[in-house]
Specification:
There is one protein chain. This protein is an alpha/beta fold. The protein has two domains: 78 residues, Winged helix-like DNA-binding domain superfamily/Winged helix DNA-binding domain (Arc Repressor Mutant, subunit A, Orthogonal Bundle), CATH 1.10.10.10; 157 residues, Glucose-6-phosphate isomerase like protein, domain 1 (Rossmann fold, 3-Layer(aba) Sandwich), CATH 3.40.50. It is built from 13 helices and five strands. Helix 1 packs across helix 6. The radius of gyration is 23 Å and the shape is elongated. GO terms for molecular function: carbohydrate derivative binding; DNA binding; DNA-binding transcription factor activity.
Length: 282
Amino acid sequence: MSPLLKIRAERDRMSAIERRIGDFLLDNAHLLRDYSSQQLASALGISQSSVVKFSQKLGFKGYPDLKFSIGEALARADAGPGVPHPAPPAQPPHMALGDALWRGKARAREETSVVNPVERIDAVVQAIAGADRVFLCGMGQDGLHARSFGLRLALHGIATVAHSDPLSMAASVHTAHPRDVLVAFSEHGRQSDLCHLSRRFRERRGYIVSITRHSANPLRAHADTPLLVCAHDEEGLVESLIYQAALEHLLDMTLLLLCRRSGHLSVDERDRIGQTPHAADP
């Protein structure tokens, strides 16, 4: 895994000093060969030990190993097919904007995949596949994602209970039992109502899945399995768009794995398609 990708993926969980180091490495990756750990520390106004600890936290023996790995990643990225190509013609502004947005979404999806290991996704798929009911809750924009995912689960034969109002969901939670699953959507994971709802659901011995940004947050701490979303951009609107794209990709992947794991869901889907009225045949 590219160390630069790992830095971007882990950024939300870093301390303030770690973020300063990470941002410097991301912004000056091509210049790192000229920086020793002491020079990097001096440039950032921090201790050399902070640089060493940062490198070790990423899984390297020290800063030299991290710097070498970054250099290798840059060399691989810069390596082309060996045949020079003419520079592409200048794009209209709206096309350049679209390409930048597409690259941001692709990067967010890649980073999101990195921070959600296979075992974590499989745990969520197994819990939903074995659930009697799946409760889904989120507020605002998160509520739209919760209802959309709930609808797709229902279309595949899974009993769902979806609410965008935590009070309504709290009333439903009174009927929950150990074979039920709660999927709580919250970008920043700080809504106290959802945290309270998660505690109530745990009292019913249900299984809790949280879907939040890749950051330390209260809702994530309440979950049996947290799903994490990475999205970073200097412009707030763009960051919101790439967050939604990465989240949708994560949900689509979960649904696809769920359908392939549970053969009876595919049978239900085929039966439903067979019952769907078709246009008049010729």
